[in-house]
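Re: the request from the purification team.
They wanted to know what the chain is likely to look like in 3D before they choose a buffer screen. I agreed to run a prediction and write the result into the notebook, where they can find it.
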Amino acid sequence: MPASFTPYVLVLQRLGIALITLVIVSFAVFFATALLPGDVAQILLGQAATPEAVAGLREAMGLNEPAFLRFLHWLGGLVSGDLGTSYVNNMPVTELIGDRLSNSLKLAGVTTVISVPIALSLGIGAAMWRGSVFDRLVSILTISVISVPEFMVATLAVLIFAVWLGWLPALSYGADVSSWGTMLRAYAMPVITLGFVVSAQMIRMTRAAVIETINTPYVEMALLKGASRRRMVLVHALPNALGPIANAVALSLSYLVGGVIIVETIFNYPGVAKLMVDAVATRDLPLIQSCAMIFCVSYLSLITLADLIAILANPRLRHR
């Protein structure tokens, strides 16, 4: 096979693997939610409902059909963009998720815009001055943050900024963002919590990727020829570390998928994660499945994008 075609073949392979993975994940999501305890019809009608009423509602909702047949109907709806109807609200799931999804995307976007530049700067700087006091301080800080779970970071943020200092509200509604001040108050606490966790992972992975590239012979040769340490890192090492750094950024941002569930619940932020938690309490299966698929697609998209960047940024795949 010609070397020039190798990247494109690998890209197609990654996209195919991502598609197959998405089908497997959809299967797992559907049957995992189907195993949730409790009868949906009984929960909706209440404990005083007669067996006949419960049976009639189950038949009207299609819950008497075989599970695999219901999965095929649900999967066909996903492909066509029909996420079904909420059991509890009797509304299309797309309408319920619409506003919440935009709120979650805003939170993730603000966190990404703030966290990525800071994390990359600290990670590259720690690799550039490896073994220095700055490197040790950054390493201690990142290890400390990684060792603390998200809910603990959120709790400490509430205690410090809301209870002790009184600078920020303990809850974040994210509705009024008409000015910079209101936007800061709405997003500060969730962004601080998510930013700490995401940045810590990204700093360590970026530092490791850059150091691995610095240790290669061609970078050491540039240093022997008189290149400064800054030029050695920024000009020679960093472009060749683009693939690993992209993986580091994608893997770190994928923590938003899990961390946002905790953060939105603690701060009562009106996002998709908070909607999913409420849907689990009411056994609203179509809503739970749709929210879970949104998180799975987000995670899979980040990982696949990182793989594609790593493939296209690898010179050995473009030249013999």
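For the purification team: Residues 93-128 form the longest helix (36 residues).
Please add any questions underneath this entry.
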